[in-house]
Amino acid sequence: MWREGRVVRKSDLHMAVNNKSAAEQRARVILVVEDEWIIRMTVVDALRDEGWNVVEAADGVEALEFLQSGAIVDMIFTDVRMPGEVDGMALLAFAQRTVPHVPVIVTSGDFDPGSAMGAGATAFLVKPYPLGTLAALVSAKLPVVR
Amino acid sequence: MTGQNDHASASVLIVDSDIIVRHALADYLRHCGYRVVEAASSDEAQLALAEASLSVDVVLCDVAVAGHQSGFELATWVRQNRPELEVKLTASVEGAAKAAANLCDGGPHLGRPYEPDSVVDYIIQRRATQQRNSER
């Protein structure tokens, strides 16, 4: 799961603190919302290996706090069923209201994909999914940075 | 610290319930070349430490982290169950940023990417934005 020898990429050296020079130079940021720690670590590791910056949220409330913080997010990848007041569908609704330009990929093993798509999800990924499929989907749905 | 002698595999487990703080610290340490594992609660941290395939050298933990155990209790648990790990407890954003900067001074390879005060400034800025957004 955790690959040895991960190299810090130059594109990583942007985010957070003394950001940003030019928008077109920044690595894109994916917010991963998943309450299962093992799954979250596997997913974020795979996405970081693809060169994206990843922000982790352990539940919907954390994700909502991060979105409200004003930090830049280019995509949200969220589980549906999570503990707490904000599940994935509530997070999707919040994102549509506050950051409608940000694509939201929804994932679940026991939720109707049609309901998620009907609610405005950019895509739905059925659990369990191969990490390669996730990476390809994220790559296809990430908006081009201007 | 184990990581200072084995920089290629040095990794830090950050245990902090505040996603803005956690993300800023994680980003800072990644810039220094560390691999970073994030835990949002003491329960998640215990799960991480129980994962055999995951190597951790240092645990950077907020004393007031959410979960069944406080940061102090988690530190005690780590010392009893994983005595080879170094635990750094922090009680403030400033303390956490300073601890992260000290880790960067010890390797793995990039040194401090920027001054720890910048981490604190970033967190203050994000929290202010968050506060403004929540008041709308």
Automatic annotation (TrEMBL), chain B:
The keyword Membrane does not apply. Signal peptide: none annotated. Keywords: Phosphoprotein. This is Response regulator. The modification 4-aspartylphosphate is found at D62. Pfam families: Response_reg (PF00072). PROSITE patterns: RESPONSE_REGULATORY. Residues 11-127 form the Response regulatory domain. Gene3D superfamilies: 3.40.50.2300. It comes from the Bacteria. The keyword Heme does not apply.
